[in-house]
Amino acid sequence: MKMLLQVILIIILAPLMSGLIKKIKNNARMRKGAPILQPYYNLAKLIKKDETISKDTSYIFKVTPYIVLTASIAAAFLTPFFFPGVRLFGIGDVFVIVFIFGLGRFFIALAGLDAGSAFGGMGSSREMFISALAEPALLTALFAASLNAGGSGIGSLMASGAVFKVSMLCAGLAFYFVLLAETSRVPVDNQETHLELTMIHEAMILEYSGKSLAMIELGGYIKQIILISLLANIFIPGSGWDLYIVKLFVVLVVTALLEVFMAKMRLFRAVDFLIFSFILSFAAVIAVVMGV
Amino acid sequence: MDWKLSFDSLSIFFGVVILLVALPSALYSTGYMKGLYSRGRASFAQILLFFFVISMLLVVFSANALFFLLAWEAMSLLSYFLVTLDSHEEKAVNAGLIYVLMTHIGTAFITTAFLILYFYSGSFDFILMKETCLNLPLNIKTVIFLCFLIGFGTKAGLVPFHIWLPYAHPEAPSHISSIMSGAMIKLGVYGFIRFVIYILGASELWWGNLVLVIAGVSAVYGILYALMEKDLKKMLAYSSIENMGIIMLGVGGYMVFLNMQFPLLAVLSLSAALYHIINHAIFKTLLFLCSGVVLKACGTKNMEKLGGLIKLMPVTAFCFLIGALAISAIPPFNGFVSEWLMLQSLFSGAVSVPAELFGKMKVFLALLAGALALTGGLAAACFVKAFGISFLALPRSKKAEAGKDFDWTMKTPLIFLSSLTLLFGIFAAPVFKLLAKITADISGFKSAGSELTSGLLSLSPQGTFHFNGLLLVLLVLAVSIIVYIIVRIISRERSVTYGRTWDCGYYGLTARNQYTATGFSKPLRMAFNFILRPYKKTEKVRDSYYHVKSFKYEIFTKQLFTEYFYSPIIKRLFSFSESIRKIQYGSIHLYIGYIFLAVIFLIIFLKRF
To answer: Do B480 and A67 touch (CB under 8 A)?
Structure first.
C-alpha cells in the first residue's frame, strides 16, 4: 500500500522536476520564466486537444505512448524514492530497471520510424546511437555501486550508498552523465530546441499530438525522476526521506546551471562525452576493488 | 568401431534444442519451397534436411569419439549441400566453398585433438577418455584444449573463425538458415562443453580467460557488423556471432569460476549459457523464418527496398517484432532473462572472488559486463533498424508492395515460436531450475545445483539478486490496464483525425524521403570507424556530360579479420605454392628421378630404423 502511494506520489511529482529546472534556469539567466507548474499546464492542454495521426502509420505508433508510460511506471515500482526497503522489490534488482527502460525506448524509436518522415528516422537513429553508447557506462556504474554494496538488490545498494567513498564519487559522476544523456539534456541533447536538424528526442516524437504526446511526455518525466532518485539514493551519501528531498533539489540545481553554462555538443562529440563517462565508471570499479 | 549412444542430461538438452528448431522449420519448409523450387529439387532438399537433422542428433547422442566425428562430418557435408541448394547462384556456390573449407579446418583440429587423446587413452570411448584426462601432463592438455577451441570455435562462429558464417547462413534457403543458426552452430558449444569441460576438465585459469576474451570480442564484433548490414538475413547471421559470444561468456565464466574454486558460481554461469542457448535457438529461428517469408513474398532481403510490410503481412510482422524484442533483451521476453542472468553471473563472480587474490579478475569481469551492456545497446539499435526500416512506414520499392502472409504451414511455426519466446521469459524460474540441474549433472556439483534451485526468487549465491518474470508481467499488465482505462476516460470526447505526415509544407513526401537503413546506422558507423573502416562507392549515370541521370551511392565496411588476417595468409599460401611449382617441370625424366630418390630414401629409412 505504502509502495502504491509512493508511486502515485512520484507520478504526480514527476513533471514538477522539469518545471523546477526551467525556473532555476530562467532565474539564473535573469529572466522571469514560466511558472513552476508549467509542465502540468502543458499536459492538461495536450489532454484537452484532439489528436492528428499520420495515415501512413501502423498500430505501433498508437500503442507506443501506452507502452512508454507503462514502462516508466513499472520501473517506478522497483525504484527507491522516499521509503527504502519496501517489499515488492522482489520483482527485480537495479539492473532490471535499466532493461525496463529499454522496452520504452525500443518502441519510441520504432514509432519515430513509423510515420515515414526523415525527422522521425533521424531522431530514432540518434536516440539509439546515444543510448547504445550510454548503456555500458550506465551498467558499469551500477556494477561498481553493486560491487561496493556486495549485491545488486535495492536495499543493500541504498544501505551502502549512505557512506562517502571515492569510488562512489566516480560512479555517481558517470551515472550523472548518463542521466543527462538519457533525459535528453544539454550537453547531449537540448529539450528547448525545435530546430529539426539538431534535436534528438523531440525529432522522434514530432508526429505525436494530443493525449499520446501527453503520455509520452509524462513517461519521460517519470523516467527523469527515477534516474535522479537512483542517483540521489545510491550514489550520493546520506539517507532518510528528508535528505532525499535535499539531494533531489541539489541535482536539479546542478542540472539547471549546467544547461545555462554549457552549449549542446555536436552529435559526434557526444561519443567522447559518453566514453569519458564509461571510463569514469570503470575507474570506479577499480577503486572499489582497491577498497577506497 | 563402437556405435554406442548415450543419453545423459546434456545430450538430451541439446537434442531438445535441435528438435525445437528443426520441427517448426520443417513444417515451414513445406510451404516455403512451394513455388521457389521445382518439385524434384524440393523433395531432394527435404531428404537432405531429414538426414541433416538425424546427423545433428547423432552428434549430440554419440558416446564414442570416432562415431562423433563421423556424424560431425556428415552434418557438415549435408549442410554444405543445403547451403548450395540454389546452385545456379554464384554467391551460394562461393558461400558454400568458404563454408566447407572453414568447417574442415575446424574438423582437422578436432581430429587432431581426438588422436592425441587416443594416443594416451587407447580408446575413443568418452568415459575412458575422461578417466585418462585426469592424469595427462599439462602441456598436452593445453594443446588439446587449443585444438578443441579452434575446432569447435569454427563451428560456433566465434571471432576470428567466424568468416564463413555471414556468407553461408544468408545464402541457404531460409528454413536451412534457421536450423543452421538455431541449432547447428550450437553444436560447437556442445562439443566444447562435452570435450573441454566434461572430458578434459578446465585445468588452468588462463584457458577460461582466453575463452572469455574471445567471447566478449565475438559479441561486440558480431553485433557491430550486424548493425551495418542492410541484408536482412546477413544481419541475422552476424547477430548469431554476437549471441554465440554471449553464450561462450557463460561457458568461459564456468571455467574461470571453477578454477578459482567457486562451484556455485560456475554452475550459475553455465546455466545462464544453456538458457541463452535455448533462447537464441527459439528467437533466431523465428527471425530467420520471418525473413524467409519476406524474401519469398517480396523477392528481396535488402532492407532498403522494403518497408510498409506491417500492413501487408501482419502476422509475420508481429512475429518479427516479438523476435526483435526478445533478441534485444527487452523484458519480459526470454532474451532478457538469459542476458540478465549472464550479467548476474559476471556480477556475482566479481562480488564473490576475494580482492586480495583475484583483484584483476574483478576488474576483468566488470569489463566483460560493460561489453555485454554495449552489446545489448547495439543489439537494440540493430533490431529497431531491422524492424523499423523493413516493416514500418511506406514501401520503398515495387517489390515491397507484394508482401503477404502465406498459408498456415508458414504461419503456424512463427506463432508457435513467438509464444515460446514469451513463455520462456515469463516462466524463468522453473526453466532455470531445470537447467541448473543439468549443469550440476555435468559438472558433478550436485549440491551447488540444488542450492541454486532451492529458492524460487533468489538465484544468487548471496541471495541478493532476484527476478520474477511472472510478477513483472503481472505488474506491467496491471499498470497498462490502469493506464489504458484512465486515458480512455480522460480523452473519451477527443477525436482522432488522420492526416499527412508532417512535411514542413513541402506537400510531396514520398517513400523516397524516408530514412534508410544505411542512414540509420550512420552515427554508429562514424563512432566505430576505427573498427569498421567504412568506404563508399559512388557512380554517376549520365545522359550527357551536363546531365546526371541518376546517382548511385553505396557504403561498405571492411571485414577486419578477412582483411588483416585471412587475406595475408592466403596470399602467403599462394606465393609459397608458386615457389614450389618450380620443381614441377613437366619433364617425365625428372619425375622418374624423383621416384628413384624417394625409393632410395625409403630404403635407407627402413634400414636405419
So the answer is: yes
- CB neighbour burial string for B374-410, b if at least 16 within 10 angstroms, e if fewer: bbbbbbbbbbbbbbbbbbbbbbbbeebeebebbeeeb
Q: Return d(Cα B41, Cα B573) in angstroms, integer.
A: 38
pTM: 0.93
Listed in sequence order, the residues at least 6 apart from A38 whose beta carbon sits closer than 8 Å to its beta carbon are A19, A22
pLDDT 10s digits, B26-40: 999 999 998 888 888
Q: What dihedral angle (degrees, nearest 10) is formed by the CA atoms of B4, B8, B11, B13?
A: 160
Say what angle helices A210-230 and A94-114 make with each other, to 10 degrees: 150
User: Which 3 state secondary structure label does DSSP give A51?
Assistant: strand
User: Which stretches within B7-64 are classed as H helix?
Assistant: 9-32, 39-61
- Distance separating alpha carbons of residues B93 and B77, to the nearest angstrom: 14
Give chain A's length: 292
ipTM tops 0.90: yes
Dig out the grid coordinates for B181 from the structure.
Answer: 543458426
B534-548 tens-digit pLDDT: 888 888 888 888 888
Q: Could you give the percent of chain B with pLDDT greater than 90?
A: 55
B536 has which bridge partners?
Answer: B555
Residues 6+ away with beta carbon under 8 Å from A26: A32, A33, A34
Give residue B313's identity as a one-letter amino acid code: M
**With an 8 Å Cβ cutoff, are A116 and B514 in contact?**
yes
Grid cell, residue B263, equals 562451484
**Chain A residues with CB-CB distance to B457 below 8 A:** 90
The answer to whether the Cα torsion of B439, B445, B448, B454 is positive or negative is positive
- Would the pLDDT of B458 be above 60? no
At B373-420, the pLDDT tens digits run 999 999 999 999 999 999 998 999 998 888 888 888 899 999 999 999
Determine whether the interchain pair B311/A58 forms a contact, defined as Cβ–Cβ distance below 8 Å.
yes
Is residue B24 within 8 A of residue B421, CB to CB? The reply is: no
Percent of chain B residues topping a pLDDT of 70: 96
CB-CB neighbors (< 8 A) of A132 in chain B = 374, 377-378, 380-381, 524
Query: Between the CA of residue B24 and those of B76, B229, B289, B325, what are the distances in Å?
Result: 21, 27, 9, 20
Q: How far apart are CA B237 and CA B176, in angstroms?
A: 12
What DSSP line would sit under B333-366, residue for residue? SHHHHHHHHHHHHHHHHHHHS-HHHHHHHHHHHH
CA dihedral B360→B365→B370→B376, nearest 10 degrees, is 160
For chain B, say whether A100 makes contact (Cβ under 8 Å). Answer: yes
Residues in chain A, pLDDT under 70:
84-90, 196
Q: Tell me whether residues B392 and A58 touch, CB distance under 8 A.
A: yes
Task: Decide if B527 touches A, using CB distance below 8 A.
Answer: yes
In angstroms, the CA B264 to CA B71 distance is 34
Nearest CA in chain A to B395: A116
C-beta neighbour count of A32 within 10 angstroms = 8
Smallest Cα–Cα separation from A215: which of A42, A83, A93, A58?
A42
The grid coordinates of residue B341 equal 542472468
| b/e B492-512 (16+ beta carbons within 10 angstroms → b) | eeeeeeeeebbeeeeeebeee
CA distance A151 to chain B (A): 5
The answer to whether residue B485 neighbours chain A at the CB level (below 8 Å) is no
Cα(A97)–Cα(B111) distance, integer angstroms: 47
Smallest Cα distance from B26 to chain A, Å: 31
Per-residue pLDDT of B253-278, as tens digits, reads 999 999 988 888 888 899 999 999 99
Cβ neighbours of A271 in B, within 8 Å: 527
H or E, element range at B487: helix B469-490
